[in-house]
Design brief:
- The protein is α+β, with helices and mostly antiparallel strands.
- It has two domains: 93 residues, PH-domain like; 233 residues, no CATH class.
- Helix content is 48%, strand content 18%.
- Strand 1 and strand 2 form a beta hairpin.
- Helix 5 crosses helix 7, helix 7 crosses helix 11 and helix 11 packs antiparallel against helix 12.
């Protein structure tokens, strides 16, 4: 078996072309000016490192001590090892089944820890310090996306009903010290969000008329929805979700390849990404405590989950645990203790 390769003798950096002849009793290395013979026991074969290339380390003092670079087919590598050559420790370890299984388990654990705790924790810590101008840019892009594909100007509710909802919202916003803008909209015929309310990073809350209608126009229930969305703004949940996604995308790029194209869809993701159960619980608690502090009835918040809890699409499609959350609002102002978000950061 003859193979062309390159010989590095360990004394000079200049490579020398070589022909490798693998015989049953050993390797003959034919160089331009001489020939060298080695027993297989003096050879150590590395792992493949690029385009089928291998390194064969030669340890046979005092005659020669160097490295051969060459291409080896899998059957050629196996032949050399079968004749008595050694496999490098690193190569052998990485190709041992126990090492591969252990590495896979460790990788899965790292991913789980990163996705479940590390990325959300970092996003939670960073979100309050993001310049509002950055959040405004993301929010405006999401707003434009929604108007292109999901919503349109309001056309179902009476002007009187809209004014009452807007007045209630202004009161909620002032009491919570969360400046925000409410816009009542209608769904386009073809949409993916259903009856819903959305808090965008630019501090705009969109409330669909269809949601108000499904709540039978109960303004106390609508107040609970709006207070809940103010809670998302108070805790920067949209930016937390966005940063978690960006961190997950970066981790995926490292592990599985380039996913830079996903950045194009950040505005849509800013309004479509699911909030975590923790974020939803925080927004629910914020809403209940705010309503209680204002002397309003928080139990109507249960209507939201009772009315929409069975729908596949809409407000609850990304909000888990509707029964549990309904029971939370049914508890009224027991254990309520409203405090402004500033105390939390």
């Amino acid at each position: 078996m003859n193979i062309q390769g390159t010989w590095f003798d360990g004394y000079q950096s200049k490579p020398q072309p070589a022909q490798l002849t693998f015989n049953p009793d050993g390797l003959r290395l034919s160089l331009p000016d001489r020939q060298l013979d080695f027993l297989y026991a003096a050879l150590t074969v590395s792992e493949q490192y690029r385009n089928g290339h291998y390194q064969i380390q030669v340890r046979n003092p005092p005659f020669a001590d160097g490295t051969i670079e060459c291409e080896l087919a899998p059957d050629q590598q196996q032949y050399i090892l079968a004749q008595g050559a050694k496999s490098s420790t690193r190569w052998a370890a990485w190709h041992h089944p126990n090492t591969l299984i252990t590495s896979l388990i460790a990788l899965v654990l790292v991913i789980v820890v990163a996705v479940k705790w590390l990325l959300p924790g970092l996003a939670m810590a960073a979100a309050p310090f993001i310049p509002q101008s950055f959040a405004d840019g993301i929010g405006e892009a999401a707003y434009e996306y929604l108007y292109q594909s999901e919503v349109q100007p309001a056309q179902l509710l009476s002007e009187k009903t809209k004014r009452m909802i807007e007045a209630n919202f202004d009161e909620l916003s002032r009491e919570s010290q969360e400046p925000a803008r409410l816009e009542i909209v209608s769904l386009q015929a073809s949409n993916s969000i259903g009856p819903n309310a959305l808090a965008l990073p630019n501090r705009t809350i969109l409330l669909t008329e269809e949601l108000v209608e499904q709540l039978d126009g109960d303004l106390d229930a609508v107040n609970a929805v709006l207070a809940h969305e103010l809670g998302h703004l108070a805790y920067y949940h949209s930016m937390q979700a966005l940063f978690s996604y960006m961190g997950l995308s970066a981790m995926s790029a490292v592990l599985f390849g380039d996913v830079s194209g996903a950045v194009t869809y950040l505005p849509a993701l800013a309004m479509q990404m699911d909030y975590s159960r923790t974020a939803e619980a925080e927004a629910d608690r914020f809403a209940r405590d705010l309503l209680c502090a204002m002397g309003k009835d928080p139990t109507k918040g249960a209507l939201v989950f009772n009315a929409l809890g069975e729908q596949e699409a809409g407000l609850l499609s990304s909000h888990p645990g509707s029964r549990e959350r309904s029971e939370f609002f049914e508890g009224g102002c027991v254990n309520a203790g409203y405090s402004h978000r500033a105390a939390n950061f």
